[in-house]
Write a structure and sequence with these properties.
287 residues, alpha/beta, 6-stranded parallel sheet, 4-stranded antiparallel sheet, 36% helix, 22% strand, binds adenosine monophosphate
Length: 287
């Protein structure tokens, strides 16, 4: 794996590459979720570039930017083992010189769901992803469905700004008990970790209800809220049933539905979601 930490170095490296390039944007602290994106990228393209950048502009003033896990040596070794061709790991000052001023954002989509409590988060995401697209110039880019709102917004940006990038969405990778793998799971104490799985059980309960034929959003919300209530360490930030196109709440579910949940566990915030899609025999749930 080639380790590159400047934009100019990345551009030069890119110029020498023939064939298709797939980009996997990450904040590092690699786990199985990241590796699944790398594997999908490798299937789609000849060359895989992984970016590793803890993006300061997507953290709020009182969020975990400074304590976010960082271990470049570990990540470089893991990237090498996964057959990543290039690891682009710039410093914050390289990506954001002091005179940086331009941002892209989604005024409506970025203010809903996670945007309610993280008002500047998605503006940071949009800006850094657009910058990474311009520096790496990938043909494809892979994102995890785990961050459901994020991937929906990036697809919106690619369409709205006519970006020549194919967005690929990868399924959520979970621990054996069901909890979605995440760098933030590291913050959980042992007892919080055992409670965190309630987030997955709430979505599972909704999945089973949908499979039994339930279509009403209020009923599904009730089922999820009841499930979470059994886990005393979880505090619900939101449980929303929305259309993936607009992120607007819907009264009943269909093949465009996302059910998104955010909870607090101690000082840690966790999110998860399920997508309802059209299957061969009617609606199907992807969790
Ligand atoms: P992060 O490093 O947390 O910013 O995540 C980088 C990419 O990995 C994003 O596209 C995430 O959606 C994706 N990702 C994170 N966790 C998972 C997971 N458990 N399953 C699938 N993709 C994930």
């Amino acid at each position: 794996v080639d380790l590159i930490d400047t934009k100019q170095g990345m551009r030069k490296w890119r110029q020498r590459v023939l064939g298709n390039v797939a980009l996997v944007p990450t904040m590092g602290d690699f786990h199985e979720g990241h590796f699944s994106l790398v594997r999908a990228a490798r299937e789609a393209a000849d060359t895989v570039v992984v970016s590793l950048f803890v993006n300061p502009t997507q953290f709020g003033p009182h969020e975990d930017y400074t304590r976010y896990p960082r271990d470049l040596d570990r990540d470089a070794a893991l990237a090498r083992a996964e057959g990543v061709d290039c690891l682009f790991a710039p410093a914050a000052a390289e990506m954001y010189p002091t005179d940086h001023e331009t941002y892209v954002y989604w005024p409506r989509l970025g203010s809903l769901l996670c945007g309610m409590t993280r008002p500047t988060h998605f503006r940071g995401v949009a800006t850094v992803v657009l910058k990474l697209f311009n520096i790496v110039r990938p043909h494809q880019a892979t994102f995890g469905r785990k961050d459901g709102q994020q991937v929906i917004l990036i697809q919106r940006m690619v369409e709205d700004l006519d970006l020549p990038v194919e967005v690929m969405i990868c399924p959520t990778v979970r621990d054996p008990d069901g909890l979605a793998v995440s760098s933030r799971n590291r913050y959980l104490s042992m007892s919080d970790r055992s409670q965190a799985v309630g987030l997955y059980f709430a979505l599972s309960a909704a999945k089973h209800a949908i499979e039994r034929g339930e279509r009403r959003s209020d009923r599904l919300k009730e089922i999820m809220e009841q499930t979470v209530a059994a886990y005393s360490a979880l505090s619900v930030e939101y449980v929303e049933i929305v259309a993936r196109g607009t992120l607007e709440a819907t009264d009943s579910i269909d093949e465009d539905t996302m059910i998104a949940v955010a909870v607090g566990v101690g000082s840690t915030r966790l999110i998860d979601n399920l997508w309802v899609v059209q299957g061969k025999k009617g609606l199907q749930v992807e969790l």
